[in-house]
Amino acid sequence: MKEMISHCGYRCDLCLAYKPNIEADPENPRRLSGGWRRYFGLRIPPENIICDGCLAKDPQLIDKNCPVRLCVIEKGISTCAECTAYICEKLEELLVVFEDIRKQREDPIPDEDRRLFIFPYENRDRLEILRRSSSEK
Q1: Which tens digit of pLDDT belongs to each residue from 14-23?
Q2: Beta strands of 63-129 (E only): which ranges?
């Protein structure tokens, strides 16, 4: 699957909630529900986990009121990396940094858990790379 970066820098193509990934493995919502609870404290029932990705036209989303998505669309940019207000308070709430999550936990995070439940959302470094590459043009 082609790399797909959301407005806030998440990797839709790696997210287990992304509709093509659910179609490939119907167990993904159940797995993701547990992973999100464990690492982010989110309690979303598996039956509510499916997402077309925020780049889709009229998408089915888990967070239908995401302030970052609405802001990026309103500004006519692709990602927060292009915004003059980068990093704003809307994005700040959605930033995911593995080291921050690791420091909050007493137990080690298995590599598989990081790959499935954290890496798709590790957006700070991803957005920084996009920001640097756009400023070099």
Answers
A1: 999 999 999 9
A2: none
